[in-house]
Amino acid sequence: MAAVPSLFSQEMPAFMAQGTPKQFHFSPYSDNGGSIVAVAGNDFVVIASDSRLTTGYSIYTREQSKLFKLSDKCVLGSGGCWCDILTFTRFLEARMKVRLRRSQNL
């Protein structure tokens, strides 16, 4: 009869052999930073943002605006996870185009 290999007879991976537990963490989201400020008065609005796109101590670019013109009277300022910002602004632009076309067909 052949011997059945035991799970415990195999060598442990190097990170487990040291005796201290290790925690591995993966997050698909990255906070790319960003600051946006807006001031509104009776007959004016001013909105401004920084232009630096970062992750941790790494600077990807110093020339990335975080302001998006949605219409002649609407500007979106957003900071945080850059991929989410781009997806959200593209979604808004598509929805606005659909509504504009529907209103023109009425």
What does this 3D model show about the protein?
The protein is of the alpha+beta class and 106 residues long. The chain is 26% helix and 25% strand. The chain has one domain: Aminohydrolase, N-terminal nucleophile (Ntn) domain (Glutamine Phosphoribosylpyrophosphate, subunit 1, domain 1, 4-Layer Sandwich). The strands form three sheets. It has a two-stranded antiparallel sheet.
Q: Summarize the helix and strand pattern as letters.
A: HEEEEEEH
Q: Give the rounded overall mean pLDDT.
A: 85
CATH superfamily: Aminohydrolase, N-terminal nucleophile (Ntn) domain
Radius of gyration: 25 Å
- Structural class call reads alpha+beta
Please state the oligomeric state of the protein chains shown: single chain
How many domain regions? Answer: 1
Helical fraction: 25-40%
> Which fold does the CATH topology refer to?
Glutamine Phosphoribosylpyrophosphate, subunit 1, domain 1
Largest sheet: 2 strands, antiparallel
What CATH architecture do you see?
A: 4-Layer Sandwich
- Strand content is 15-25%
- Stretches where pLDDT is under 50 for at least 5 consecutive residues are none
The tally of helices reads: 2
CATH class: Alpha Beta
Give the tally of β-strands.
Answer: 6
Through-space gap between termini = 83 Å
Shape: elongated
Main sheet: strand order: 1-2
Main location: nucleus
Protein name: Proteasome subunit beta type
GO biological process, one term: proteolysis involved in protein catabolic process
Pfam families: Proteasome (PF00227)
